[in-house]
Every structure is written in C-alpha cells, then in structure tokens.
Write a structure and sequence with these properties.
The termini are far apart. It contains 4 helices and 8 strands; from the N terminus they run αββαββαβββαβ. It is α+β, with helices and mostly antiparallel strands. The protein is globular.
Amino acid sequence: MDSASIARRSLLGGAGLLLTGADHARAAAAKPRVAIQTGKGLIVVELEDKRAPISSANFLRYVDAKRYDGGTIYRASRDVGAPTQGTIEGGPSDYARRFPPIPHESTTMTGLRHKAGTLSLARNAPGTATGDFFICASAEPFLDAHPGAPGDNLGFAAFGQVVQGMQVVRAILALPTHGKALTPMMKGQMLSPPVPIIGMTRAG
C-alpha cells in the first residue's frame, strides 16, 4: 500500500472518530421525552432535566412506575374572556399510590417560564407537589414566580415543553367542564367526563 493510500485511510478513520464523538455528545445532551397517550390523542413532552432536575426526575419516576396509566386529565382551566387560552391538568388515578412530595423548583431557580406548551407541576403550598401536572395551552406568565408580590409568590415548577400534540392540548381545553368541583375555585373547570390517560412511556 503506498503512502497516499495510507494517508487517505488515516484521514477517513479520523473523520469517523470525530463523527462518533459528535454522536456521543448529541446522545449525552439529549433531553428525555415522554409520550402521553390520551383518549383524545398523543402528546409528547420534552423534559428540562438539567434545568429542573428534581421535577423532571419526579415525573419520570411516576412514568416508569406506570402510576399515570389509568389516570385522567380532569381539569380545563380557561382564561377569563379567552376560552382558547388556559391550562389542562391531569394526574394518576385515585387508586394509584403517590410518592412523597418534592421540593419546589420555582421559575426563578430554573429560568423556565410558563409559555404555550409548558409542562408544570400542580401543587398546593410550596413543597407539596406529587404526581399531578398541567400543560399550558397558551402563555400564562402569572404562573411564574413573582418575588416581592404578596402572599404565595413562588409560582409553579415548570419542567418541560410539548414538542408534539399541541392540537390535542387545545382540543382538551375546549371540552365541556360541568364536572363536580373539588374546591370552589375549580367550579366550571372540571372536565365531564375526564379524558383518560391510557398510558405514558419514555419516548427517548
């Protein structure tokens, strides 16, 4: 084999190593995705596991344990005067065991915001979030943390984004909401009937 052939093979081999290294870097940087199969269609979300690691790990724990399978999307909270804007909320079934609550990752900690397609954790007081989640059908900046505002100003823990199926989110938001309210503030927001969560699986 002449020296020119050896040089060409060396260059090709080096290029192959570079491509392999790039592939490994892309794989390492890939964000986890979850496919949410609902009775109204498929929603795929991508998790911000580097920026919101606690909330992302909590969600994946429920997914991997199949705790969301058989659950429901039970609430559609439409913005006043803007029926195509708002959030949909879901969670495990009433019979599914919940994992312990997790610490609150506010938007001031993560830098994430509640925009159209944002996936976030539902909660009562900060530090009470378990398996219930919501998805924004539109930008909802009032759900972000607002330090300095009166009362509970820590907002909600955004931790992911819809990458497929926003039409499903909007279709669920538009469904009838005549169900029995769990609290007075939920009156007119409970889906009737709720939308079943057929299953959730990791999609990448």
